Amino acid sequence: MEEVQDDSFEALIKEGVTVIDFFAEWCGPCRMLSPVLEEVSEELKGKVKFAKLDIDKNHVTAKAHHVTSVPTLILYKDGEEKNRLVGLRDAAAIKDFALSA
Fold first, then answer.
1. φ and ψ at 26, to 5 degrees?
2. Is 30 a catalytic residue?
3. pLDDT number for residue 101
4. Total number of domains in the chain
5. Does residue 87 carry a pLDDT above 90?
6. CATH code, domain with 54
7. Roughly how many angstroms between the first and final C-alpha of the chain, as a whole number?
8. Which domain of life is it from (predicted)?
9. Is this structure's pTM higher than 0.90?
10. What range defines the domain where residue 39 resides?
């Protein structure tokens, strides 16, 4: 799963359906969520794009999108936020979330 930065964020979410995982290296639940996201991203390849954004390295984007806790998953469709999940979730919940756009 690719890691997106402040300078590439808008281009990534501009078209199609994208799930961004706002995370931090120090966050235990974020580390637990990572393999689940990898699994779901492989399953939904070609339908939904998945990427990660480190809030400590990319605070401009995290602040602009009102991310106050991690992990936060935000679902975008053609650049617009459609939904968000905060906290650790299982693969089924993430898949349903990703397909809800």
1. -80, -5
2. yes
3. 86
4. 1
5. yes
6. 3.40.30.10
7. 20
8. Bacteria
9. yes
10. 2-98
